[in-house]
Amino acid sequence: MSDVTEAMIEAAWRREEDPVAQLIVIRSDADPAPIAVTDWPGGITSNGVDYPHYPFELVWHGASKEDPFGKGKLTIGNVDRRIEEACDAALTPPEIDLSLVRVDAPDVVERAVLGAKVPNVEGDALQVSAVIKPRDFSDEPACAAKYVPSTVPGMF
Questions:
Q1: Is it the case that residue 51 has pLDDT exceeding 90?
Q2: What is the pTM of this model?
Q3: Cβ distance 98 to 60 under 8 Å?
Q4: Residues 6+ apart with CB under 8 A from 111
């Protein structure tokens, strides 16, 4: 994740938040061209990439005991059938990049979640819904280890 810029912080302190756009890039091994979309009406160009407007809703669920790393749900208008086809035909879970940019400075990414996995997708003629899982740290050595008195007595 990246830190927000000084300009965004100053605007927030002035209570004059700049309009922001969410950018989504979906990559799938079934489609060599990444799919880039935004929620900004009329679309936006950021870092030389055109993001056409697709209506979507992004909801994040907090972490819980059962799901310690949380997950999100993306529901996007099925304007381009490539989204559903690329996700359905993928051999490995597609990846998604979520970015937040100020409309006045679209080349500066304020916050980002990069390389999140999309384990399952469902859709119909009107919309496509996908569960988004950010990086799972349970395979990391510090998280995979069991910290109990027999293995690390110094902690107890």
A1: yes
A2: 0.74
A3: no
A4: 1, 2, 4, 99, 100
